[in-house]
Amino acid sequence: MEVIILGSGVYSGIPKPLCNCENCSRARKFHLYRRTRFSIYIPKIRALIDPSPDLHYHLEHLNEKIEHVFITHAHFDHMGGLPELQIFKQIKLYGHVITLEVARDMQKRFVGESKWDWEYFPLEFNKWHDFGFKVYHFKVAHQPIEVAGGFIIRIRNKKIVITGDTGPEILDDKKTLKEMKSANLLVADMTHRHSIPNVHLGIDDAIKLAQKVRAKKTVFAHISHTNYTHEELEERVKPYLVARDFMHVNI
Ligand SMILES: [Zn+2]
Ligand SMILES: [Zn+2]
Ligand SMILES: [Zn+2]
Questions:
Q1: Ligand 2 centroid to residue 64 C-alpha, Å
Q2: Is the dihedral of CA 77, 62, 45, 121 positive or negative?
Q3: What share of the chain is helix, strand, coil (3-state, %, to 5)?
Q4: Structural domains of the chain ordered from first start
Q5: What is the 75 CA–ligand 1 centroid distance (Å)?
Q6: Which ligand is nearest to the CA of 20?
Q7: How far, in Å, is the centroid of ligand 1 from the Cα of 117?
Q8: Do residues 151 and 40 lie in contact, with contact meaning Cβ atoms separated by under 8 Å?
Q9: Closest by alpha carbon to 154, among 119, 180, 173, 174?
């Protein structure tokens, strides 16, 4: 099975406009260092995780149908591209009830309702839900937003874990860690060099999470321009992987 990381970057993307740091300067010169805003696609069930503000660019390249949309939280870098989904008349959206309220409001304001058969499926935290595939939505600490969560998606015998944006408190969430155990793929937040309590994971804590989950493959994503360069990150997190835009991961 394949999982595609569409966007590997943080809210400002790389290059961030007007920033001349090493990462942003390199990304302007060489496009392989660009990082668009975070998003993932699972071809097997035609599922998109987080409609990034770069969704139009992602869809141009992906050129595939989307049927299921999972939203981790209502920060603009994770759902600002939701109106781009208007090319799909029928989709199913999943997330916490508060997150889905924002999505529904965006549909109303930017897309319309009468011709679009979009269905909303609020997911209770810390419970498995069955839609043909199985999904578990877990709560994470990600201030100042009220509700944010990650997903564990089970498709037949494959388990995919996506933390979304999370603070290092996830390392103490025994119940969620137990559910994540031995996943086929872990995609985890590694925004900055150092963790910010209740907001984002840094390098050391991202590695600690990977060591606890023991997934067959681990990819660190949602990377800020303030983090190390791609090559240096690769060195620091070995044997784990560092996401790139449009990276295909076989699981
Ligand atoms: Zn984010
Ligand atoms: Zn920069
Ligand atoms: Zn966020």
A1: 32
A2: positive
A3: 30, 30, 40
A4: 2-126+133-244 (3.60.15.10)
A5: 6
A6: 2
A7: 28
A8: no
A9: 180
Closest CA to 150 of 67, 40, 234, 76: 40
Ligand found nearest the CA of 38: 1
Taking only the tens of pLDDT, the chain with its 251 residues reads: 999 999 999 999 999 999 999 999 999 999 999 999 999 999 999 999 999 999 999 999 999 999 999 999 999 999 999 999 999 999 999 999 999 999 999 999 999 999 999 999 999 999 999 999 999 999 999 999 989 999 999 999 999 999 999 999 999 999 999 999 999 999 999 999 999 999 999 999 999 999 999 999 999 999 999 999 999 999 999 999 999 999 999 99
Q: Which pLDDT does position 238 carry in this prediction?
A: 97
Collapsed DSSP state (helix, strand, coil) of residue 73? strand
CA distances for 164 relative to 8, 22, 119, 139, 187, angstroms = 11, 26, 22, 10, 8
User: Which numbered ligand comes closest to the C-alpha of 145?
Assistant: 3
Q: How far is the CA of 23 from the centre of ligand 2 (A)?
A: 6
Interval between CA 27 and ligand 2 midpoint (Å): 9
Q: Which amino acid is at 88?
A: F
C-alpha of residue 217 to centroid of ligand 1, in Å: 22
* Ligand 1 centroid distance, CA of 30 (Å): 24
Ligand 2 (ion): residues with CB under 5 Å are 16, 19, 21, 24, 225
**CB atoms closer than 10 angstroms to residue 179:** 17
